[in-house]
Amino acid sequence: MTDPDRTRLAFQLAGVSVAIAARTILSEVTLSLRTGRILGVLGGNGAGKTTLMQVLSGERSISQGTVRVLGETVPFHERATWRRIGIVPQDTALYDELTVREQLLLFASVYGLARTDAALMAIIDLLGLAPVSSTRADRLSGGMRRRVVIARALLHQPELLLVDEPTLAVDADTRHLIWRHLRSQRDQGRTVVIATNYLEEARAVCDEVVVLRQGRLQRIENLDQLLERSGIILAARCTMAVREQLCQQLRSEQGVVRADPVPDGLELMVGESACADLGRLLSSIATISAWHRRAADLSDLLRFIEQAP
Amino acid sequence: MNHRLVGRMVGAGMLAEWRQVLRAPSMLILAIVHALVLMSLVLLFGLTGSRAPVDLVMEDSSRDAQSFQQALAACHHSFALTICDASTAARNLAQARVSAVITIPHGFSACLAQRRPVAIRVDIDNVNADLSEDVRSALPSAIVAFGQARDPAGLTLSLVESDRIGHDTGFIPYLAVSAFALDLLTISAVLAAVAMCRDREARLDRFWERSPVHPGVLLVGRVLASLMLAGLAIMPALGLVLAIGIHPLHPWALAACAALILVCGCSLGVAVGAVIPQSTLAIALILGLSLALYLASGALEPQRFDGEVIWYLAHASPAYPAVALLEATAHGLDITPEPQLLNALSAVGWTLAALLFAVWRFPRRQS
Fold first, then answer.
1. Fewer beta carbons below 10 Å: N end or C end of chain A?
2. Which CATH architecture has domain A227-307?
3. What are A's interface residues with B at a Cβ cutoff of 8 A?
4. What's the complex ipTM?
């Protein structure tokens, strides 16, 4: 089933929709990715990121459209195609009673790797698992478990790596180690697709970014530019009694992209250039007890995209 | 599919299952304890049902009285006789420690010599009609045996016995072997069902589904390991059987039949695991059904003794051929009208049917 003309594309989705029990999870998604790139799929909870990953892995059947992965039509006709794909699921499911090394040997058996295979040893070293290789999975930290799950997906050196929330609930050191490793995969010519909630992750790792909102996909040409356009967030603390009125008042100020009430006050999305003036303004309003600035997060970005013309 | 890869995966599955069971041995311990408890319960039933505890008060210590005591001890549904004085016997009866007190009266021997009637007093705790009937029916046969031994010419009616089998088999050894058959089935079924549920419970079934080799290959390894573990787990129950003093008539045939029953139980566990993805539910089902299927299998006596309808129903239990095979090889008993070859084929049939069912059902459990 290999099509030589399309092998330079890691995957192609054309008009793909997925509906589960009359609910549309993905709606007419069209997307392709060249090999050797890292694609970030951004989206909030329930946006359809995991479903998209499942479509790419051939696990989820589609309602309409076509899917080709590594030149093969999905669903795959031969199980051997999974030899070319590595999957890092959201959860860190492992066999609790087995040590790290025993797990990886078990998983390696399905790819025909031997106990002494260099690839197996290299993965253990690369992900910093050597010190815990004799530790049972039920005694590992969350970060270590995630490393083992990533190692499992890399054992067979797949051409396409599908990673769902790679740094969910891990510490900063592990996060940077995982990012470094994902980038090294790309540098070795492999293709990586990352589903993530974190803007920081997409900026740090991904070559291309798409956003999923309620099953619909939007390509982001330049994430940094978009973040620059979406601006800075000014979070002000005030009482519930005055926040609506203040929001109303601040929306008319120059440079304010949006002003919304939040549980303990209000938030302004403002352009970088107007940030200083608006800060002074907030300081002068007596009903605002305190304010601070922060970088826009994913939910800010999604709202910006939604409101953008 | 690459045969070497399949072989490696089967081996890896076996090793993983072996390690996982031994490192979290609660299921293994449960299976062993269940086997021992089941056998103990069955044996306890046999002990209480066949030997009524009875105190014997010997007010006459003559040779005749001792002969009568021996006749009592030897009769069918023999009494578990304890000789004691009258007050101890009365206290034991009042405290429900014995089911009856038999008293051989003063002048027992003298009355017999003078051919005068002798009244043997029996005090019965008739709280349990079953044991009371045992005492009531055993006493006359003891009297007849005693009379025939003392004065053969005086009794013209005698018994000519012709046995179908060349030897008698004790009730306890009979029960122990049949309980062992059930133990083989349940231990192997429990461990195989646990193996079938393991990947699903670890939430790794999705990983194996998306692997280059069919997940069934790994399961074959896991089930083979559970079969080996079942072989080890049955050892304490086997020890109990041997401790009772059972010496199998055909030990090698018994070993072969036990292996066949283990395989049969394993395949039944695979079938249960193919339907039910949670090991705790699967085990509850196996243990819950085991006693019902056992009792309706001829485990307590040849099933045909209970009537044709129950005998027909008994064929719905895999314990039916299992008990028959073990009773034949251990005690040389044919407890079914079917020949042993047919019973062996029946066990093979159960095995194949369970495996075919699992192959059909397993993909549906996964989806």
1. C
2. 2-Layer Sandwich (3.30)
3. 57-59, 79-83, 85, 87, 89, 91, 93-98, 102, 105-107, 109-112, 136, 152
4. 0.74
